[in-house]
Design goal:
Mean pLDDT: 95
Structural class: mainly beta
CATH architecture of the largest domain: Alpha-Beta Barrel
CATH superfamily of the largest domain: Glycosidases
Low-confidence stretches: 1-17
Number of domains: 4
Shape: globular
Number of strands: 39
Strand order of the largest sheet: 1-11-10-13-7-3-4
Radius of gyration: 27 Å
Length: 714
C-alpha cells in the first residue's frame, strides 16, 4: 500500500507541475490516432473473392500466431524503449495471438462478480489504478507487408485488447486505444515499407482508467482475445456503409435504405442478391463523393425473423476509371422493429423472447472463442428453444452477429459499460463528468460497428452502472443515430430513459402488478431472471405462466447461458473446472458464482437446461376430450408443416401402441384439434399418451428428426 500511495503522490506532483497525464490514466483520452469506427465489413478485391473468407483475400495479412512477449507483474517495471528497432528482445518469451496471458503462464486468472479485481489492496479512486499488480504485456514481431500494397492505405486491426493498446511501427509511435471489447484500428500507411519486413510492437496494460467501466461479472483476463490482422484499402473507397432494411405497406414490401460514406470519389454499383445468389435489384451511382444515400424499393421480399431468418446480400462494388477497386458484401434482413400498445413488435407481431445472457467464454481459451464454439452455442440455443440472446455485457466478436443473422437469434446488443464496483449512488460513474465522454464514445462506436445486423433488435447502453446524465446523454445519442431500434438500460427503471422496462430478477408478484397496470406503457422484458445456478429453474414455469397471460410481459433473458469455469490443473495435477479462489490466496474472489449456466463449460447441458427447453417450447399440447388433443402453435411466423407428430400410448410405462401424424396444419398463434386413434384403454393402471414433435428436414443447425417439443397427457 505504501508503494501505491507513493505512486499516486508522484502522479499528483507531476500534474501540479504541468506534466502530461498518460493516456492510460486519462478518462478524457480514450483514443489517439485510432481510426474512426465503421460498420463491420471487409472490402474484397473482386466479386469472385467476395464469396469467400477474408483470410483468403489478397487484401489481408494475418497477425495471428507467435509473438515475442515480455510480461511484468507491476506497471512501473515495464520496458519503455521496447519499440526501438534495435531493441534486444532475445531474452523474451513467446505468446500466441490471440491468447490470454493468464492461460499461458503469465499471472493468475481472477474471478469477481462485483468490485474491481484490485479490491483487496487498492481503494477505488477513478481514474487512478494501481501500479502494483497492474501487469503489462509487451509484444514484438516482424511482419512482411506485400509489395503490391504500395499506394494503398494499410490498416492494422486488433480485435479485442484488454484493457488497452499502444502501438508502434518501425520505431514510430502510431496511436492508442481503449474499450477492450471493440476493435482498435490504426492507419499505419505512413509508417510501413511495403515489400519488406516491418517491426510491429505494442503494449497492453491489465488495468487502465477504462477498467472502471469494465467491472462485469466474469473472469478477468488480459491480452488479445480476437483475430488481429492488417488489411489494405484503395485510396478511393467506401469508407462506411450502413443499411436499414425496413418494411412498409402493412409489413409486406421492403424499403432498403443505404447510407454510404465515400473517401475520394468513384462509381458505386449496388446489387441486392437473394439466397440463390441472383441479383433482384441493382442501381449504379456515378461519381460518388462524400455522403451518398439511396433507397431501394423491394416488392414483397422474404422477411427476416428468428423463426425464419431469410437473408439477402447487398453487394457494393466500388470502381474508378472502369476498374473494380473493392467489393463489400453486407447481410440484409427485411424486418421492422417497433413498440406499439406496450409491446415490442417484430414485423408487427408481439414476439415472446425466450432469451439467455451469454458471456464470451471458452474453458480453454478464455475470451478467445472459436467459430466452432460459437456455432455450438447457437445450436444449443436452438435445441433449448432459446430464440434470443443479450451480449452480456459488451459487444461480441463481429462473427457472432453474422451467425445470429444467418441462423436466427434475436440480439440485445450491449455496450461495454459496467461500473458496478463504484455503486449506484453518488460515486457512480453515470454522474461523473470525467467519464461522460467514455460513456458516449463506447455507445457510439458500438452502434456504428454493429448497425447493419438484422439480428440486433435492441441496443443496450450498458449494465449495472447506476443512472445519471451520462446515460441520459448516451440514450439521446443512440436514438439520434438509429431510430429503427429501441434502446434499453436496466438502471433507468420504469421512468428513466429506456424504451423497454428491463429489470433483473423481478419477482412474480411485481411482474404481475406491472403487467396489470395500464399506466405503464413500456414492454416488460427482464434483462436477467431465472438465475441458473446449482439446482435451479424450479420456478421457471411460474414466470412463463405470467408471460403467456399478460400481453405486455414478453419474456426475459436467463442468467446465464454457460458456466464460466475454466479448465485448470490443481496443485496435484488434476484437471478441474476452476473458479474464483482456485489460483492463489491473494487475489479477490467471488468463488463459484461464475457457474450460473444452463450448460457446463464444455457445453454439456446441465439438468436444468431441459426444464428450460420444456417450458419454452413453441408447440403446446393439451387434452381435448377422449381421443383428441388440442395443438397450439406459439410461433409467430411459421405454421407447423415443418414437424411430424409422433405419439406413443403407455400402459404402466410399457408402450402398447404408436402412431404418426405427418401433416399438421396449424397456423401461427392458432390452435387446432387432432384425433389420436389410440383405441380403448383399461380402467386400471397408469395410462399415458406421449407426444413428440420432430423436424422433417434439417433446420439450420438442427438435424432432421430432432425433437423440438414434447407433451405427456394422463
Amino acid at each position: 500500500m505504501k508503494k501505491i500511495t507513493a505512486t499516486c503522490l508522484l502522479a499528483a506532483v507531476a500534474l501540479a507541475a504541468g506534466a502530461k497525464t498518460p493516456e492510460w490514466l486519462d478518462p478524457e483520452v480514450n483514443a489517439v490516432n485510432r481510426a474512426p469506427m465503421h460498420s463491420s465489413y471487409f472490402a474484397f478485391e473482386s466479386v469472385e473473392d467476395s464469396n469467400g473468407d477474408k483470410a483468403s483475400s489478397d487484401n489481408y495479412v494475418s497477425l495471428n500466431g507467435k509473438w515475442k512477449f515480455n510480461w511484468v507483474a507491476d506497471a512501473d517495471k515495464r520496458p519503455t524503449d521496447f519499440w526501438k528497432v534495435n531493441y534486444d528482445d532475445s531474452s523474451w518469451g513467446q505468446i500466441n495471438v490471440p491468447g490470454m496471458w493468464e492461460l499461458n503462464g503469465y499471472g493468475d486468472p481472477i474471478y469477481v462478480n462485483t468490485g474491481y479485481a484490485w479490491r483487496n489492496h487498492f481503494k477505488n479512486n477513478p481514474p487512478q489504478v494501481p501500479e502494483k499488480d497492474n501487469h503489462v504485456g509487451t509484444y514484438r514481431k516482424e511482419i512482411e507487408i506485400p509489395a503490391d500494397w504500395k499506394g494503398k492505405d494499410v490498416i492494422a486491426h486488433f480485435g479485442s485488447a484488454t484493457s488497452n493498446i499502444s502501438l508502434w511501427v518501425n520505431g514510430k509511435y502510431v496511436g492508442y486505444g481503449e474499450d477492450s471489447k471493440l476493435e482498435n484500428e490504426f492507419d499505419i500507411t505512413p509508417y510501413i515499407r511495403p515489400g519488406q519486413k516491418n517491426l510491429i510492437t505494442f503494449q497492453i496494460f491489465r488495468w487502465c482508467d477504462g477498467t472502471y467501466l469494465e467491472d462485469q461479472d466474469f473472469f478477468r483476463f488480459s491480452g488479445l482475445a480476437r483475430d488481429s490482422y492488417l488489411y489494405a484499402r484503395s485510396k478511393n473507397r467506401i469508407q462506411d456503409i450502413r443499411v436499414n432494411a425496413d418494411l412498409t405497406d402493412d409489413y409486406r414490401d421492403g424499403k432498403l435504405g443505404v447510407d454510404i460514406d465515400v473517401k475520394g470519389s468513384g462509381n458505386i454499383t449496388l446489387e441486392l442478391l437473394n439466397a440463390d445468389n441472383k441479383v433482384i435489384k441493382a442501381e449504379t451511382i456515378n461519381n460518388a463523393k462524400g455522403n451518398v444515400k439511396r433507397t431501394l424499393d423491394i416488392p414483397n421480399p422474404l422477411k427476416w425473423s428468428a423463426e425464419i431468418p431469410n437473408l439477402y446480400t447487398l453487394r457494393a462494388t466500388f470502381s474508378k476509371n472502369g476498374k473494380t477497386l473493392e467489393v463489400i458484401p453486407v447481410n440484409v434482413g427485411f424486418r421492422k422493429i417497433e413498440i406499439k400498445n406496450s409491446q415490442l413488435l417484430v414485423n408487427g407481431q408481439p414476439v415472446l423472447f425466450k432469451g439467455a445472457d451469454r458471456h464470451e467464454l471458452d474453458p480453454d481459451g478464455g475470451y478467445v472463442v472459436s467459430l466452432d464454439r460459437m456455432l455450438q452455442d447457437i445450436q444449443l440455443m436452438k435445441e433449448l428453444n432459446i430464440n434470443a440472446v443479450r451480449t452480456c455485457h459488451y459487444p461480441d466478436d463481429a462473427l457472432w452477429y453474422d451467425l445470429c443473422d444467418k441462423y436466427g437469434i434475436y440480439v440485445v446488443a450491449e455496450a461495454n459499460i459496467e461500473s458496478h464496483g463504484m455503486g449506484y449512488d453518488k460515486e457512480t460513474l453515470a454522474k461523473n463528468p470525467a467519464y461522460a465522454k467514455a460513456h458516449l464514445e463506447r455507445n457510439q462506436r458500438h452502434v456504428q460497428r454493429n448497425f447493419n445486423h438484422p439480428s440486433i433488435i435492441v441496443w443496450s447502453l450498458g449494465n449495472e452502472a447506476g443512472y445519471g446524465p451520462n446515460f441520459e446523454a448516451a440514450y439521446d445519442m443512440v436514438k439520434a443515430m438509429d431510430n429503427s431500434r429501441p434502446v434499453q438500460y436496466e438502471q433507468a427503471r420504469i421512468d428513466g430513459k429506456t424504451d423497454i422496462f428491463c429489470p433483473m430478477y423481478y419477482p412474480y408478484e411485481h411482474s404481475e402488478r406491472y403487467s396489470q397496470n395500464d399506466n405503464y406503457n413500456k414492454p416488460l422484458i427482464q434483462c436477467e431472471y431465472a438465475h441458473a445456478m446449482g439446482n435451479s429453474q424450479g420456478g421457471f414455469k411460474e414466470y412463463w405462466d405470467l408471460i403467456r397471460k399478460y400481453p405486455k410481459y414478453q419474456g426475459g433473458y436467463i442468467w446465464d447461458f454457460v458456466d464460466q469455469s475454466i479448465r485448470w490443473k490443481d496443485k496435484n495435477g488434476t484437471t478441474i473446472w476452476a473458479y474464483g479462489g482456485d489460483f492463489n490466496d491473494y487475489d479477490a474472489s467471488d468463488q463459484n458464482f461464475c457457474d450460473n449456466g444452463l450448460i457446463s463449460p464444455d457445453r454439456i447441458p446441465n439438468p436444468h437446461a431441459y426444464e428450460v427447453a420444456r417450458i419454452q417450447q413453441n408447440i403446446l399440447t393439451s387434452a381435448a376430450g377422449e381421443g383428441k388433443v388440442s395443438i397450439f402453435n406459439e410461433n409467430f411466423f411459421r405454421d407447423l408443416s415443418y414437424v411430424t407428430l409422433s405419439w406413443t400410448l403407455l400402459d404402466n410405462g410399457v408402450p402398447v401402441k404408436t402412431g404418426v401424424i405427418e401433416n399438421l396444419d396449424v397456423a401461427p398463434q392458432k390452435s387446432r384439434e387432432y384425433a389420436i386413434n389410440y383405441g380403448p384403454i383399461g380402467s386400471t393402471g397408469e395410462w399415458l399418451l406421449n407426444i413428440d414433435y420432430s423436424t422433417k428436414e434439417r433446420e439450420g443447425l438442427l438435424p432432421a428428426g430432432f425433437v423440438v417439443a414434447q407433451e405427456q397427457i394422463v
